[in-house]
């Protein structure tokens, strides 16, 4: 009689393949062995060779029979659990008992189907059938799953059940997981309560527990609590390690607490610990944000010497460059650009820095040399490069070359933006009157855009046009054109 099994979807097959453990293939079937006798040798009549192939065949047959039976059980159990109103505890009672493999397969299924809140109930029922299943190892697995799913309160129930009902002493790993779960949820009182239980039971907490607390305190702006946490570490014989100090420096840097950052930095140096790359980058950003040129340069040189090489993101590059611009150290921009090129190759921010360096110095020769280098390397102009050159020539009142840049933009198919419009509008006051003509000729697009790098505005400032545009109610600016913006600025300037 043929047995009809329920149909399986592709998802079911994937799940079963993950939960089944296939037996290892026989090495005798996979490897060739050398013959024990040469061809010329003859066996004595009394010699008898056991028929191992038959035995191996029978063993493999039994193994695959067991495998097929296990597969069938898991498949049937999976079908039962797939029902919307299925109760895994009731299914366990109906089945009588599950093997270890079947139980953890059910736990995995409940976890994958967002039913992790039922795991502890199933474990209670399963472990009640055999007390040997009540072990620290099993509870650790259960607690870890619950904490990862954000069910830390149920994890605490498992902890209390383990102690009060079964009389099993929880491991430090279980406490660590629960403390981590509370810290992740910003429930500091609960986290500190279980941390104190660890300390009272002489379970020395690992530094990672305190580091998690410090990070969560920083996220919530509780910087005084961070200092208290460090003192608590030391009082319990868990001295801050390299990871702790690096974490403190990063969090103080992000918060702008420069003095605390520098105090912690000195401790790291005195203890001859290493600074992590992310820590040095955080210090660089802090000094750049506060415009501390001397300390910023010192840390910047440290960043450039790091091995393996680290790469600054564009926002951090802009912050460092802005400090150089504010201190009129324009040649530093070219140095930064050259260093960036050696690390990242052709990037927009790199060419922006190099062109700004010469534009801020009002060096025609320098700007032309950068243009030639870009052409040699077959780098296309961006609107940032064009606007940088326009700003420099406008400042020099060299409108012959200024007009040449506009023609070059048309030839190179560089699309202007609102900064270009502002430069041309403000240049009208110095005798350049081609803005209306360029608009009629279709030089500007239909949509108002801002694509110029912010460093250009840091270096040359915002003209009258952009300042007035910033004051306009932008909630009604979605359908505006450049022509409409120009009329609006004119009306504002005329007091209409």
UniProtKB/TrEMBL annotation:
| PPR repeats by residue range | 206-240
Please name the PROSITE patterns in this protein's record: PPR
Q: Which UniProt keywords apply?
A: Repeat
* Polar residues: compositionally biased ranges: 31-43
Record region (Disordered): 31-54
Report which superkingdom the organism of origin falls in.
Eukaryota
- Please give the NCBIfam families that the UniProt record associates with this protein: PPR
Name of the protein described by the UniProt record: Putative pentatricopeptide repeat (PPR) superfamily protein
Q: Which organism is it from?
A: Helianthus annuus (Common sunflower)
Lineage start: Eukaryota, Viridiplantae, Streptophyta, Embryophyta, Tracheophyta
């Amino acid at each position: 009689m043929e047995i009809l099994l329920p149909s399986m979807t592709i998802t079911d097959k994937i799940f079963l393949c993950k939960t089944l453990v296939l037996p290892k293939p026989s090495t005798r079937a996979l490897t060739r062995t050398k013959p024990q006798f040469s061809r010329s040798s003859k066996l004595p009549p009394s010699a008898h060779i056991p028929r191992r192939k038959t035995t191996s065949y029978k063993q493999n047959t039994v193994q695959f029979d067991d495998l097929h039976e296990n597969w069938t059980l898991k498949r049937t159990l999976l079908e039962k659990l797939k029902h919307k109103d299925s109760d895994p505890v009731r299914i366990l009672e109906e089945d009588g008992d599950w093997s270890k493999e079947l139980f953890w397969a059910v736990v995995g299924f409940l976890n994958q189907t967002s039913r992790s809140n039922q795991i502890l109930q199933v474990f209670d029922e399963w472990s009640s059938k055999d007390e040997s299943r009540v072990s620290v190892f099993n509870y650790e697995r259960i607690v870890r799953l619950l904490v990862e799913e954000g069910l830390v309160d149920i994890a605490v129930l498992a902890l209390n059940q383990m102690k009060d009902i079964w009389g099993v002493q929880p491991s430090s790993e279980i406490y660590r997981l629960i403390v981590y779960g509370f810290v992740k949820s910003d429930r500091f009182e609960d986290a500190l309560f279980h941390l104190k239980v660890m300390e009272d039971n002489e379970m020395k907490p690992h530094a990672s527990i305190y580091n998690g607390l410090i990070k969560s305190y920083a996220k919530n702006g509780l910087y005084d609590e961070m200092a208290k946490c460090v003192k608590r570490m030391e009082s319990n014989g868990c001295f801050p390690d390299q990871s702790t100090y690096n974490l403190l420096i990063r969090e103080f840097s992000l918060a702008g607490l420069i003095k605390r950052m520098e105090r912690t930095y000195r401790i790291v140096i005195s203890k001859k610990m290493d600074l992590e790359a992310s820590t040095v980058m955080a210090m660089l950003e802090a000094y750049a944000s506060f415009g501390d040129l001397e300390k910023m340069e010192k840390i910047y040189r440290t960043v450039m010497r790091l091995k393996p090489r680290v790469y600054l993101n564009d926002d951090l590059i802009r912050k460092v460059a802005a400090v150089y611009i504010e201190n009129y150290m324009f040649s530093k921009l070219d140095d930064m650009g050259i260093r960036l090129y050696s690390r990242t190759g052709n990037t927009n921010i790199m060419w922006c820095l190099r062109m700004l360096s010469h534009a801020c110095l009002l060096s025609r020769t320098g700007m032309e040399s950068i243009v030639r280098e870009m052409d040699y390397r077959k780098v296309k102009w961006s609107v940032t490069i064009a606007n940088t050159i326009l700003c420099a020539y406008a400042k020099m009142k060299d409108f012959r070359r200024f007009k040449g840049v506009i023609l070059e933009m048309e030839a190179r198919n560089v699309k202007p933006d609102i900064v270009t419009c502002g430069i041309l509008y403000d240049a009208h006051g110095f005798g350049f009157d081609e803005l209306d003509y360029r608009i009629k000729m279709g030089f500007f697009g239909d949509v108002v855009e801002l694509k110029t790098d912010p460093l250009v505005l840091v270096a040359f400032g915002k003209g009258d046009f952009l300042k007035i545009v910033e004051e306009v109610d932008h909630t009604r600016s979605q359908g505006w054109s450049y022509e409409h913006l120009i009329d609006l600025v004119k009306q504002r300037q005329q007091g209409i």
